[in-house]
Amino acid sequence: MVALDILFYSFVAIVFIQLFYYLVFLRTFAFLKPTQPQKTEIPVSIIVCAKNEEENLKQFLPSVLNQDYPNFEVVLINDASHDETLSVFEHFSEQYNNIRIVDVKNTEAFWANKKYALTLGIKAAKHNHLVFTDADCRPTSTTWISEIAAHFNHEKSIVLGYGGYAKIKNSFLNMLIRFETVLTASQYFSYAKLGLPYMGVGRNLAYTKTLFFEANGFINHMNVRSGDDDLFVNQMASSKNTALSISPESFTESVPKKTFGAWVKQKRRHVSTVSYYKKSHKFLLGLFYVSQILFWILGIVLLSLLFRWEIVIGLFTLRILIQWIVMGKSAKKLNESDLVFIIPFLEIFVILTQLAIFISNKISKPQTWK
């Protein structure tokens, strides 16, 4: 009975930790109303780094080039592609006069290093305000640049946006990918709003060239193959210089992975950067994840043994209900309403996947970005 008492009180503590995260941290974004900053027409450089993306570029680049914004250039970086990416760039440059092409060749020191390619592209950009997206992304509106750029001012030099994934009908994997994306966005938006910005996603991120040079570029983590987005934000973002762009018109949408193995490989690269975050960020994120795992494990064990089952069911239900409300509002805000009713079910699969990724990354290093 002593062992069961320990499990029970541990479960109670875990539930309260989870409730704290949802009601203090994650609710911040869930109940946040989009601000309407005054529109601006500051000159902007859009940065697109592509490696072997000829088909995606044909499909998605026009949605970037045809933005309704008066003063922008598009810097297209060919990161040592061995397909026709460069030819596609040149084809578009014949039709649009605001394209700047940067053709990157592999070097022995920076072989297959995206950060090296991005650095050359950023240096080539003629404007101070930079907006980043990927070759397989499309803005969800023609006012995407306008929405992002409006958040820049004399204090704000970083703008965090949302990069979602296209919906695939009747695909559980697609729902899993989109839920994990919603959960991640809910966290980094909430933390940033509370003055603890720790990451952004390169699918939809903006910062100034001045800030990039202030950080000496990616020099502090150039040896880490991933993290051109989140590690830079983790290093340079603060409560004063970071803004959020959460209007639906400011979103981007990417091509999701179509196999579980491909998605896991992608997530392994992303997760590998977390160990380089600031200690406070690692602690907060780690505690949330560990409490997620223990909530399900301890709850299931106690219910299977019928130990104080009335209290356990009550606490279990309370946490699920709060999660449903908070994450449900976040999902709707990010145009992912179809996920709401199966959020607890999706959470279990995300937790298990993250655990498998963590173990895999301890055993072997993830592969490079392409």
Automatic annotation (TrEMBL):
The UniProt record lists the Glycosyltransferase 2-like domain at 45-178
**Descriptive protein name:** Glycosyltransferase (GT2)
Q: Which GO terms describe its molecular function?
A: hexosyltransferase activity
Keyword Lyase appears in the UniProt entry:
no
Supply the InterPro entries for this chain: Glyco_trans_2-like, Nucleotide-diphossugar_trans
| Keywords assigned | Membrane, Transferase, Transmembrane, Transmembrane helix
Entry superkingdom: Bacteria
Can you name the source organism?
Formosa agariphila (strain DSM 15362 / KCTC 12365 / LMG 23005 / KMM 3901 / M-2Alg 35-1)
Q: Where are the transmembrane segments?
A: 6-26, 283-305, 311-327, 339-360
